[in-house]
């Protein structure tokens, strides 16, 4: 039975996290993993190129060497092992699983905040502080997206929780009360 990408990502990501923790290199590995995530995000076809059967190993080797350049030993070994097993298409899932473990251990929560206008740095900091207290996190990292349909207020999505404090929702509630 073939494993899905999520399961493979969890297994490899957890193994990398455990290894980095054991070796005391967790922060270095985290930095490398985040950089590698950015590479895969910037070049979405990279994994396909590295698993392409029509390309020779000699053609793939410079790309692989470039990925491993300046990386910690654990990350270099991960890249080589994933490449050798033909699982480069699973790499984004592996990296995401590692980051998820890192964030969980360090009390970091990622929140998507939708607002009618861009939030200032001060507003983001104040919101992050309040969210950290509410969610029991040490740190909240906010990704602000703008949607004029919100009208005012914010919609926060974090840790499978949605907090809708938008004017759009309040208008919809008033409309529902008036109609029903």
TrEMBL record:
Recorded topology in the membrane: Peripheral membrane protein
Alphabetical list of InterPro entries matching this protein: ATP_synth_OSCP/delta_N_sf (IPR026015), ATPase_OSCP/d_CS (IPR020781), ATPase_OSCP/dsu (IPR000711)
Domain of life, per lineage: Bacteria
Major subcellular location class: membrane
Subcellular location field: Cell membrane; Membrane
Name under which the protein is recorded: ATP synthase subunit delta
Keyword RNA-binding: no
Residues making up the signal peptide according to the UniProt record: none
HAMAP family according to UniProt: ATP_synth_delta_bact (MF_01416)
Keywords in alphabetical order: ATP synthesis, Cell membrane, CF(1), Hydrogen ion transport, Ion transport, Membrane, Transport
Family as reported in the entry's similarity comment: Belongs to the ATPase delta chain family.
PANTHER family registered for this protein in UniProt: ATP SYNTHASE DELTA CHAIN
Protein purpose: F(1)F(0) ATP synthase produces ATP from ADP in the presence of a proton or sodium gradient. F-type ATPases consist of two structural domains, F(1) containing the extramembraneous catalytic core and F(0) containing the membrane proton channel, linked together by a central stalk and a peripheral stalk. During catalysis, ATP synthesis in the catalytic domain of F(1) is coupled via a rotary mechanism of the central stalk subunits to proton translocation.
SUPFAM superfamilies xrefs: N-terminal domain of the delta subunit of the F1F0-ATP synthase
Entry annotated with the keyword Ion transport: yes
Pfam family, one: OSCP
